[in-house]
Amino acid sequence: CLWVISCSTSMKFPGRPSFPAKWPGGRDDLLCKRTFRRAGVENAMTIRSDITGQNRLKVIAPTAFFMLVGFVWLYILLLGVRPLVIPDETRYAEIPREMIASGDWIVPRLNGLRYFEKPVLGYWINALAMQAFVENAFAVRFPAALATGLTAVLIFFLAASFAGSAGVGILATIIFLTSIEVFCLGVFSTLDSLLAFFLTAAL
């Protein structure tokens, strides 16, 4: 800052006297001129970065749209095409069904027996999905797929904020959604996807 101020004193302004700027160590006006040239380059780079940011937004928006379409196609549309798998999916379907039938949303039951193996929140979410989409395979698997999608959104923002680049966030999201285990759990009715979502949100 002192260098720039000293350089500014060497510039000629109408009606003002000009003073030669000196720098300790024998540096003269030439260094000051270089300083202002560098400042001009930095300003130009700032403007260029703003333009680049606008161009990146134009690229990121359609990329996010195609990622959303791909997610819906891979994770959502095919949820109801296959029957429920015994014993896991049928268990996570029967417990919410009994909650809805009995009206008791506090104590989870499986075939009439109390079942406290897993937290009740997962059963609540499955029960709400079954009330929204009727009792079918799509409704039972939808919370897991939705949790996977929300986790992908969180991963995008986390990666983009840490790396300082939206491109890194998009790449991290694509890697996450195309991982085999993530895909298998995202279209399968278990509580793993919900657990992953809440753990990622806690970060």
Describe this protein's structure:
The protein has 203 residues and is an all-alpha fold. Helix content is 69%, strand content 2%. The chain has eight helices and two strands; from the N terminus they run H-H-H-E-E-H-H-H-H-H. The chain is elongated.
Keywords:
203 residues, two-stranded antiparallel ribbon, mainly alpha
Task: Characterize this entry briefly.
With 203 residues, this protein is mainly α. It has eight helices and two strands; from the N terminus they run αααββααααα.
SSE topology sketch:
Elements (H helix, E strand, L loop, with lengths): L1 H7 L20 H48 L11 H15 L6 E2 L2 E2 L5 H14 L3 H27 L2 H12 L2 H7 L5 H11 L1
Antiparallel strand pairs: 1-2
Helix pairs in contact: 1-2, 2-6, 3-4, 4-5, 5-6, 5-7, 5-8
Beta content: under 5%
Quantity of strands, as a count: 2
**Uncertain regions spanning at least 5 consecutive residues:** 1-13, 16-23, 39-52
Query: Globular, elongated, flat, extended or rod-shaped: what is the shape?
Result: elongated
Secondary-structure element string: HHHEEHHHHH
Assembly context of the chains: single chain
**Biggest sheet, spatial arrangement of strands:** 1-2
The helix fraction, in percent, is 55-70%
* SSE-based structural type: mainly alpha
- Evaluate the radius of gyration: 30 Å
Total helix count? 8
Mean of pLDDT = 81
Give the biggest sheet.
Answer: 2 strands, antiparallel
- End-to-end CA span: 39 Å
